[in-house]
Amino acid sequence: VKRGFGHSSFLVNGWQSFGFSGIIHGGAPQPRTCLPYFSGAFHEGVKVPPHLLETDPDILVSDMFGVFWLHGRGGLLAGFLGQSSGFGGLAAHSAPKPTRLLLFSESGVEVRPGSS
Fold first, then answer.
1. What is the pLDDT of residue 116?
2. pLDDT (tens digit, 9 = 90+) per residue, 6-64?
3. pLDDT in tens, 62-99
4. How distant is the alpha carbon of residue 110 from its chain centre?
5. What is the CB neighbour count within 10 angstroms for residue 49?
6. DSSP string spanning 52-102?
């Protein structure tokens, strides 16, 4: 079961002009770029950890930062940029319960709920 339109919204920050930037409501699919050959050449940083795509092919991903808004409850702005070359991403799973978000980086570091 995916999140419904009344459940939540996710603000996606796309990578330059090559990726989608905008708000996705509920479990709607994330638009993909029509320029995959160009976006790959300029975007060698953060990538979604492979285990996420295996378990949830409809996961939503935002580069550098994202805003997840749980309707009627509030939201969370998360992400980061490094001083020299590092940056991360925010991913939102498609299932409504439990609501699961993941902050991750191009170096393979993942910040998961309940971990330290």
1. 46
2. 899 999 887 666 677 899 999 888 887 666 555 544 455 567 778 888 888 888 888 88
3. 888 889 999 999 999 988 777 666 678 888 888 888 88
4. 13
5. 16
6. HHHH-TT-EEEESEEEEEETTTEEEEEE-B-SSS-BEEEEE-S-SSS--EE
Distance of CA 81 to the CA centre of its chain: 15
Spatial separation of the C-alpha atoms in residues 29 and 42, rounded to whole Å: 24
**CA-based torsion, 109, 101, 9, 96: positive or negative:** positive
Amino acid at 82: G
- Alpha carbon separation from 88 to 19, 27, 53, 98, 105 (Å, rounded): 15, 22, 17, 23, 4
Q: Which of 20, 21, 24 is nearest to 9 (CA)?
A: 24
Radius of gyration of the chain (CA): 14
Q: Which residue has the tokens 């940056």?
A: 87
